[in-house]
Specification:
The chain is built from 8 helices and no strands. It is mostly helical.
C-alpha cells in the first residue's frame, strides 16, 4: 500500500482534508462510496453542501471568530538560563535565507511552523491531576504556606474563579511540583551568542 504522506511531511493531494487539522480547522469527511448508486451519492453530497452553505449564511461570522481565536498565538520571549536537550538544532541567522528563517521560526509570524501546527504538542497538557488528588494536595499546600493561602483567598474575590471548581484546583496544580512547566512553552530559543563559538 503506497503512503499518501511522503517522508517530506507534505500532504498528498488525496489527503487535502489534512489541511484542516494542520490549521486547527473543522474537517468534514462524508463517506458515501458504499451506497448503492452513483446518483444517490451525488444527490447526498449536493444536499449536504447546500445545507452547509445555508448554515454558513447565518453562522459564518461565528465560525470565523472561532477560527481567529484558535489561530491567535500570544506570548513573549523571556531571558533565562535553560538546559537544551541533546540533539537540539542550532540555526544561525547570519545566512542568505535569514528572512525565511524568521518566517518559519518566529512563533507569532502568520506562516510560522507554530501557525501551521508543527508545534501543537507544546500546547497540549499531557499530565493531569485527578480532582480528588488535587483537593488533598491543596489542603496540604494551604497548611504549609501562609503566603499561598493569602494569594488563594485574594483570588476568591473573583466571582468566576470562586464559582469554578476546575479553576480553583488548577490554581493549586500549577503551583504543585507535578505541574509540567513546559506546557505552552514553544521549543524555540533565541541565543545571544553562537553555541558553536562558545564551545571553541
Amino acid at each position: 500500500m503506497r503512503s499518501s504522506r511522503p517522508r517530506t511531511g507534505c500532504f498528498g493531494k488525496n489527503l487535502s482534508h489534512d489541511y484542516a487539522a494542520a490549521r486547527d480547522r473543522i474537517g468534514i469527511l462524508v463517506e458515501t462510496h458504499s451506497w448503492a448508486t452513483n446518483e444517490q451519492r451525488v444527490r447526498t453530497m449536493h444536499d449536504f453542501i447546500a445545507a452547509l452553505f445555508e448554515r454558513a449564511v447565518t453562522d459564518a461570522p461565528a465560525w470565523r471568530a472561532a477560527a481567529d481565536a484558535a489561530d491567535a498565538v500570544k506570548g513573549t520571549y523571556h531571558a533565562e538560563a535553560r538546559d537544551l536537550p541533546a540533539g537540539s538544532l542550532f540555526v544561525p541567522i547570519a545566512q542568505p535565507r535569514a528572512r525565511l528563517l524568521m518566517h518559519l521560526f518566529e512563533p507569532l509570524a502568520p506562516d510560522s511552523l507554530v501557525a501551521w501546527g508543527f508545534f501543537n504538542v507544546a500546547f497540549q497538557q499531557q499530565e493531569y491531576m485527578e480532582a480528588y488528588v488535587a483537593e488533598e494536595e491543596a489542603r496540604k499546600m494551604l497548611a504549609a504556606s501562609p503566603a499561598l493561602k493569602a494569594e488563594f483567598e485574594a483570588r476568591l474575590a473573583d466571582p468566576a474563579f470562586a464559582a469554578s471548581l476546575a479553576e480553583r484546583l488548577r490554581f493549586f496544580y500549577r503551583r504543585h511540583p507535578a505541574w509540567d512547566e513546559r506546557v505552552n512553552l514553544v521549543p524555540i530559543v533565541r541565543v545571544g551568542t553562537s553555541p558553536i563559538d562558545a564551545g571553541r
